[in-house]
Amino acid sequence: MSLTVNLLLNGVALGMLIFLIAVGLTLIFGLMGVLNFAHGAIFAWGAYVGWAVYGATGSFILAILAGTATGFVLGFVMERFFIRPFYGNHVAQILLTLGLMIVLTEGIKIFFGPNILGFDKPELLQGVVTILQDPFPVYRIFTIGVGALVLIGVHYLLSRTKYGIIIRAGVQDPEMVQALGIDVRKVFALVFAFGAGLASFGAVIAGPSFGSLHPEIGMQNQLAAFIVIVIGGIGNFVGAAIGAVLVGITQTLMAYYLPEAALAVNVALMALVLILKPEGLFGLRR
Amino acid sequence: MRERIFNNKWLLAAVLVLLAILPFVGTSQFLMLMLIQVFILAVYGMSYDLLLGYTGIVSFGHAIFFGTGAYSVGILLTKMENPNLLFVAFLIAIVFSAVVALLLGVLSLRVKDVYFSMITLAFAELFFIVAEKWSSLTGGNDGIPYIRVPELFRERVSLYFIALGFLVVMFLFLRRVVDSPLGRVLQAIRENERRAESLGYNVLQYKLVSIVISGMVAAMAGGMWAVLQRYVSTTVFSLDQTISALLMTIIGGVGTLTGAILGAGVITFANEWLSSLASVHPIFERWLIFFGIIYIVIVMYFPKGIIGTIRDKWARSSERGKRDAAQTDQRGKSVL
What we know:
The complex is a heterodimer.
Chain A: H1 2-31, H2 39-57, H3 60-83, H4 90-112, E1 117-118, E2 128-131, E3 134-137, H5 138-160, H6 162-172, H7 174-179, H8 184-210, E4 212-213, H9 217-232, H10 237-257, H11 262-276
Antiparallel strand pairs in A: 1-4, 2-3
Chain B: H1 9-21, H2 29-55, H3 63-80, H4 86-108, H5 113-133, H6 135-138, H7 156-179, H8 181-191, H9 193-198, H10 203-229, H11 239-252, H12 258-276, H13 288-301, H14 305-317, H15 321-335
Helix pairs in contact in B: 2-7, 2-10, 2-11, 2-12, 3-4, 3-10, 4-10, 7-8, 8-10, 11-12, 11-14, 12-14, 14-15
């Protein structure tokens, strides 16, 4: 019993971690339809800047702020100067964002060096608590909490506020929104930047959970982000969160019972969902 | 007519003659090795162009076919212990990848656009993992070393001509395919899938044919790659392998076949040149960054690739070309 609970808890923690990586991409890829392969690189920049600020100031809150700001600025610049002419043009987006990904990743190697860097947990969040006789790291509880807060916050923003309505309407019918007197280009730029900011925010939270950083960290986790979005249903924000938790739990269970296949389970799950229900578990058929 | 300039028989023949006399004018072994790589990768790029440029489907799993070909040939040559059975190995590899392509197509062509890209990405990842984990067959992370190939395929000059011949034959074959009634239907699907469907064409079947042909050609390229390297590792199944097909096609020009050949050349030589710069100045240690910049510049300033851009310029300068330019413009828009 306690083993099951423990595995499930770990699965949820891993799922929330994946969700934090994917959350920005759900906006950029899910809502705006941009195949952004530079997402992982923005994630990595967030993590590295967060690491540097944390190391310099010792304040984890400052690290989160700095990391998030980095992603926001990077996202804004990317959208403004590179992505903007290529909405709806997937082939161009792939090549363009791959190029940006390489430039950003190599940039990390230039600024921070190509080696692995250790990322310690803040003192307050170290240690373990006992849940049903089994130890469980405090930081994972923190991750689950932050993931849940982000989920609720962004969901509220998208579905309950005026900005959310503008964003969703702008994505669905940009011309109509423009005709209503709203600068759609500005909306797109801000959504893209917001998505990038969320990615780098998630990166600073995820960094200590990984325990170490390396320049390819974003690329490594990017695929998982795409997978949970597709599983949840492209464009469905809550779906992505459920997809992430599903992937997290499956992966944890597989890692325990059938470690050989743990690597394949993500992609197998995605392939299965796409074959059986192409629009994703919670997506609407287009 | 629109293919007039770069599929000009005489220009292509001249390039071919030039390439054919190259080994006899004291060309270095190194350059020849590079060119052999270009020839093989060009075939791989052209096979991708059949999908991307002529049928209009964006696959993220093209490495599956390249890898299947490479591993099949590698494993068969090792197991059969007689290098002269190379052609049998190729035949089996081609048939096997045709089956793989058919299965992959049946499973994934039911979904469209991004969904198709994602599902092919998933399958490619599965193949990669299988190649890594099924080590009794594939050698796992060590790959398959010391593949024995016939003497003819070891000798640099003869291999050069075999690879060149391979490229020419495959180019003519694919040219024939895209100019055939079948190819016309594929292009109709690329332009407007619903229209093709309402005209009575079974779109799914045509797409399946396209992916099977593309898969078989890519598998041959993979097999040749295994023969050239005499070594196969999991990288043939990697996402990078798919991306390189995408790059070759886009850099050269989507939907041109010749573009993929040029793209293969550009990528192979740029790769070599940029990585060799690292010893010149420490700033070039991060030479990959230039590759990234090249991608960005190509998308932003040469969206039709090298061949497409030149062809447009050329077409504009001639009276008759104006109509062609309009056509290529439309093509560019719908594919890119």
